[in-house]
Automatic annotation (TrEMBL):
<dbReference type="Pfam" id="PF00873">
    <property type="entry name" value="ACR_tran"/>
</dbReference>
<feature type="transmembrane region" description="Helical">
    <location>
        <begin position="333"/>
        <end position="353"/>
    </location>
</feature>
<protein>
    <submittedName>
        <fullName>Hydrophobic/amphiphilic exporter-1, HAE1 family</fullName>
    </submittedName>
</protein>
<dbReference type="InterPro" id="IPR001036">
    <property type="entry name" value="Acrflvin-R"/>
</dbReference>
<feature type="transmembrane region" description="Helical">
    <location>
        <begin position="431"/>
        <end position="451"/>
    </location>
</feature>
<feature type="transmembrane region" description="Helical">
    <location>
        <begin position="893"/>
        <end position="913"/>
    </location>
</feature>
<keyword id="KW-1133">Transmembrane helix</keyword>
<dbReference type="GO" id="GO:0042910">
    <property type="term" value="F:xenobiotic transmembrane transporter activity"/>
</dbReference>
<feature type="transmembrane region" description="Helical">
    <location>
        <begin position="965"/>
        <end position="984"/>
    </location>
</feature>
<feature type="transmembrane region" description="Helical">
    <location>
        <begin position="996"/>
        <end position="1022"/>
    </location>
</feature>
<feature type="transmembrane region" description="Helical">
    <location>
        <begin position="463"/>
        <end position="485"/>
    </location>
</feature>
<feature type="transmembrane region" description="Helical">
    <location>
        <begin position="919"/>
        <end position="944"/>
    </location>
</feature>
<feature type="transmembrane region" description="Helical">
    <location>
        <begin position="360"/>
        <end position="380"/>
    </location>
</feature>
<dbReference type="GO" id="GO:0005886">
    <property type="term" value="C:plasma membrane"/>
</dbReference>
<feature type="transmembrane region" description="Helical">
    <location>
        <begin position="12"/>
        <end position="32"/>
    </location>
</feature>
<feature type="transmembrane region" description="Helical">
    <location>
        <begin position="531"/>
        <end position="553"/>
    </location>
</feature>
<keyword id="KW-0472">Membrane</keyword>
């Protein structure tokens, strides 16, 4: 090969090339940011609309359905999921994979803008947002101080929060808990009745009086002065003395006559607590393209600065959760695995190549490829995340592959007595074709992933391209650096049995020779007993399939990963107050904090959930506890987080009977949905709820099912006001007036603000707490009738009764729906989903009820489908690559026979390691397509060369198998050994990479053992058939050529 000869004679070109790559890679590494996962977008847009004081049924009819109608005409819609809650509507628009989400958001906004005028007047403007993994808080903080609670709350809101939100990359900081100052106007219902007034009159008088108007300018020839009407309240007395109405021939009725005005605190809606200490919770979310590690670093610096400047007030920010800690731990763990893999692969090289200089020649490919990969990642805009670092860790054994094949062949030529130059030229020329084929088939298997439109493809794209680029660089190394170094420093090692290390190498070499001799005899037996060997393989396949059919290998979308944290959600009875909820939460916290395994607890009492699936609505009877455990090695019994969580739940169920408990591991990627999600749709809500309860009960009886819930629950207590519209109209009233009055009475009106210095505080006008304690108080609400010219009670034109209704209503694709959700414990979600599907086949759903899947079932279908499609495309691409290289359609098929035998080992490895079939295990299967054909290519390529030299078919096959056994063992063992640290890793993020590594280890091992027999046998059969077919065609041709 002229190219190799040029490289050997003029190495300056490759020295400059790899020097540039090394410098560029080292420079790039410095600027690569750290992230837990690659940034990827989910094609989902949410439309959230607040309708204060409205029941779910009102929200559905007045808001949700109108928004559904408006957005249903958008292009590329997959599903529309609607949740109508008390006070809020959430419409989730799921677009098809590959949709430009920014464009979809703009189009959705346009549709909403066109219909917003159709919504009721007191509905707030709908807000739109994209769903992203970035929606989860990256930090949870608790702020405390020695200042009065309301003063500190105002400082946090007005001073500290803006400082923290200025940090680049921060998208939003949500405050939870704390005591907020508020001017409270508590109206006495009896006094309203005494004076003949309505609450709405009081509210209108206050809001209309507390205004400022810029009214123009006073101008003269020499100056102009702004004219402003200053009508804002400056003291509480201004409010007390405000005249509501002056009756004819009577004294003015003032606000102070019917209400008590206090400078107090807003009603507590949520409480934040960390390790028993109350404070103000701060939940930090990042922008989609921001770096969480950098935000955390700057956030800690800013918090330290605020604490220092406010030391006299004892201001303190406690970091309850910081995602960057797990990110950096994951990066450190993968880096450790990478270094260990390099050391182990180097040891394997030394064992096979007998000398440090030969091992060094091969190992040069590792740093050269890795450093070049950093440059590639920088150019592509990638970060150092779990996927790119996992790619670099797994690729260690692959990087030395080409160099091993090249060097081993050069060594073989050296043993023939050739000098270094001649051996290098002949060795590379002879093996170069196979080396190119090996590399190309590894690279092309990743091409389909980069072309598939799905969330899984987005997640795996950086992994795939990093592996592909690194492998291509390793091919370049094997054709440049390896031949150059070999021509300069390679030599045959003559081992000295007196040296202990070399004596061990001699022993190993003898064992290798014995193995090679045994293999040669075994291969000869296989070629002579093809039917018997085929039967043995068939039995292996059948037994493997039977064992897998027993369900030993479960299924799941992705392993959650163990961050040492879990979320414990507790619910009391729906009528429970926040105070009751808080007392129960404190008891549970105290119980848990006594546990030696528990390190910290963050409590969110009554506040909205912080996850991706949060509705943004808090519940007074609900508490979320984020429980952080000590490291596994410090826990008594060394229980993993999931098992400990199960034990704790059992204990809490006994200690706190009647408390509804739900728990979930806080994993690396939380999709925002439950693993089990069954959406039942139909036309009759009562029938759907009955069916959903039946399905939920069937699920609860299944092993591994946990936290089975029905989304739409009846029994939510509510006061139902049924208006007689005719009576209401005769009194001169309308729905808007009645609704606004009820809303003011029980939710309060805070449209008006009270200014104290530079700060504005809410003025909340509502009935006194004594007048809104029970349902009977609703009946006593009065309205001023312009027709009757007097106050009238609600009961004069409405029927008021205590009833119950659902706390949430759902729709899917504009049909009424109910969702059954659940978690799994101890088994893969896919395994439980398969059991559910079998149960539904045995007992189908009633007619008129349809079922669709969400959660892991939908994710698995999409993810496994995408990877399955990628695997089929990869097989086709590998076949085409080999057709081009071999100029044959038959021999590539022979090579592909190495793939099925790899699946046997992969499945056995998953079973033995108790791993589930997940997206990452499927990725391992995809990688095996490119990796295992390598062994077959080495055998087929060399057999072709030997036949071209005139060697008989059978002898060529036997010779090719024997001569290529050593490089096959070297390359496969190097890859397997390099992946062992990843397979057995237990650090941060290990759960994802374990199954991937076990699939590769099992598949490579079984392929190495079986391919060296199966491929030569198939190759020999193909040649025999081709020979006979050729002779037959020749005979027919000769007969046709004989003259008659």
């Amino acid at each position: 090969m002229k190219f190799i000869e040029t490289i050997i004679k003029r190495p300056s070109m490759i020295i400059v090339l790899f020097s540039v790559l090394a410098l560029g890679g080292l420079f790039s590494y410095k600027y690569l940011s750290y992230e837990l996962m690659p940034e990827f977008s989910v094609p989902v847009v949410t439309v959230t609309t607040v309708y204060p004081g409205a029941a779910p049924s009102e929200v559905e009819s007045e808001v949700s359905k109108k928004i559904e109608d408006a957005v249903s005409g958008l292009d590329n819609i997959d599903d529309i999921i609607t949740k109508s809650l008390e006070n809020a509507s959430i419409v989730i628009i799921q677009f098809k994979p590959g949709t430009d989400i920014d464009n979809a958001l703009d189009e959705t906004q346009r549709k909403i803008n066109n219909m917003v005028s159709d919504l009721p007047d007191d509905v707030e403007t709908p807000s739109l947002s994209k769903i992203s993994p970035s929606d989860q808080p990256i930090m949870q903080l608790l702020a405390t101080s020695a200042l009065p609670n309301e003063v500190f709350y105002q400082q946090v809101e007005d001073r500290y929060l803006p400082l923290l939100q200025q940090i680049p990359g921060v998208a939003e900081i949500t405050m939870v808990g704390g005591d907020k100052r508020e001017i409270r106007i508590n109206v006495d219902d009896d006094k309203l009745n005494y004076y003949g007034l309505s609450l709405l009159q009081v509210t209108q008088a206050i809001n209309q009086a507390n205004l400022e108007f810029p009214t123009g300018k006073v101008k003269s020839s020499s100056e102009q002065i702004t004219l402003k009407l200053a009508g804002k309240f400056t003291s509480l007395d201004d409010i007390r003395n405000l005249v509501i109405v002056t009756p004819p021939n009577g004294s003015p009725i003032r606000v102070g006559d019917v209400a008590q005005i206090t400078d107090g605190l807003a009603e507590t809606e949520s409480i934040s607590r960390y390790n028993g200490q109350n404070g103000i919770g701060l939940f930090v979310k990042k922008q989609s393209d921001a770096n969480a590690v950098e935000i955390s670093r700057q956030m800690q610096e800013r918090l330290a600065q605020i604490e220092k400047e406010n030391a006299k007030d004892k201001v303190k920010f406690t970091i309850a959760y910081d995602s960057s800690v797990f990110t950096l731990n994951s990066v450190e763990a993968v880096t450790h695995d990478l270094v260990l893999a390099v050391v182990l692969v180097a040891a394997v090289m030394l064992l096979f190549l007998h000398s440090f200089r030969n091992a060094l020649i091969v190992m040069v490919s590792v740093p050269a490829s890795l450093v070049s990969a950093f440059l590639f990642m920088y150019v592509m805009g990638y970060s150092l995340n779990l996927m790119t670092l996992l790619a670099l860790s797994l690729v260690i054994g692959i990087l030395v592959d080409d160099s091993i094949v090249v060097l081993e062949n050069i060594q073989r030529h050296l043993e023939m007595g050739k000098d270094r130059w001649k051996a290098t030229l002949d060795g590379v020329s002879e093996i170069g074709f196979a080396a190119v084929a090996i590399t190309l088939v590894i690279v092309v298997v990743f091409v389909p992933i980069t072309m598939v439109n799905s969330v899984i493809a987005d997640l795996l794209r950086q992994f795939s391209l990093t592996v592909a680029f690194s492998t291509l660089v390793s091919l370049l190394v094997s054709f440049t650096l390896t031949p150059w170094l070999t021509s300069r420093i390679a030599r045959l090692e003559h081992l000295n049995p007196k040296n202990p290390f070399q004596a061990f190498l001699l022993w190993f070499e003898r064992r290798l020779d014995a193995l090679s001799h045994w293999y040669s005899n075994a291969l000869a037996w296989v070629l002579g007993h093809k039917i018997a060997f085929t039967g043995i393989l068939a039995v292996i396949f059948v037994v493997t399939g039977w064992v897998m059919g027993l369900g030993i290998v479960g299924q799941e979308f992705v392993a959650q990963g163990d961050q040492g944290k879990f979320l414990l959600t507790m619910k009391l009875d729906k009528s429970a107050s926040l105070q009751q909820n808080n007392l129960t939460a404190r008891r549970v916290e105290e119980y848990l904090r006594k546990k030696p395994e528990v390190a910290a607890i963050f409590a969110n009492v009554g506040g909205a959930s912080t996850g991706m699936a949060s509705t943004g609505q808090g519940e007074t009877n609900r508490t979320e506890l984020t429980v952080e455990l000590r490291p596994v090695e410090e826990r008594p019994g060394h229980l993993p987080t999931e098992k400990y969580m199960i034990e704790v739940r059992k204990e809490l169920a006994k200690q706190f009977p009647g408390l509804e408990l739900k728990s979930a591991i806080i994993g690396m990627v939380n999709s925002g949905s439950s693993p089990i999600e069954m959406i039942l749709s139909g036309d009759n809500l009562d029938e759907l709820m009955k069916t959903a309860e039946d399905v939920a009960n069937r699920l609860r009886a299944m092993p591994g099912a946990n936290d089975i819930k029905v989304s739409v629950e009846s029994g939510n207590p509510e006061v139902q006001v049924n208006i007689d519209r005719e009576k209401m109209a005769k009194l001169g009233l309308n729905i808007q007036t009645v609704g606004a009055s009820l809303q003011n009475a029980f939710a309060g009106n805070d449209d008006s603000k009270y200014r104290d210095g530079a700060e504005d505080y809410d003025i909340r006008i509502m009935l006194d707490a004594f007048d809104r304690k029970n349902p009977e108080d609703v009946k006593n609400i009065t309205f001023f009738s312009p027709v009757a010219n007097r106050p009238v009670r609600l009961t004069e034109f409405a029927d008021v009764r205590l009833g119950s209704g659902p706390s949430m209503l759902e729709r899917k694709n504009r049909r009424t729906s109910v969702t059954v959700t659940g978690n799994t414990l101890g088994i893969g979600s896919g395994t439980l989903i398969n059991s559910i599907k079998q149960d539904l086949v045995a007992k189908p759903l009633p007619a008129g009820v349809s079922l669709s899947w969400g959660g892991d079932a939908k994710n698995q279908d999409e993810g496994f489908g995408s990877l399955g499609l990628a695997m089929m495309a990869a097989l086709v691409l590998v076949y085409f690559i080999m057709v081009l290289l071999y100029d044959s359609f038959i021999y590539p098929l022979v090579v592909l026979f190495s793939i099925p035998v790899a699946v046997i080992g992969a499945l056995i490895a998953l079973a033995l390691s108790s791993s589930n079939m997940s997206i990452f295990a499927m990725l391992g299967m995809l990688m095996l397509i490119g990796l295992v054909v390598k062994n077959a290519i080495l055998i087929v390529d060399f057999a072709n060369q030997l036949k071209a030299q005139g060697m008989p078919y059978k002898q060529a096959v036997l010779k090719a198998g024997e001569e290529r056994l050593r490089p096959i063992l070297m390359t496969t063992i190097a890859m397997v050994i390099g992946m062992i640290p990843i397979a057995v890793a237990s650090g941060a993020g290990a759960e994802w990479k374990n199954s991937l590594a076990w699939v590769l280890i099992g598949g490579l091992t079984s392929s190495m053992i079986l391919t060296v027999f199966l491929v030569p046998m198939i190759y020999y059969l193909v040649d025999r058939v081709a020979e006979r077919w050729g002779r037959k065609k020749k005979k027919v041709y000769e007969e046709e050529s004989v003259p008659v």
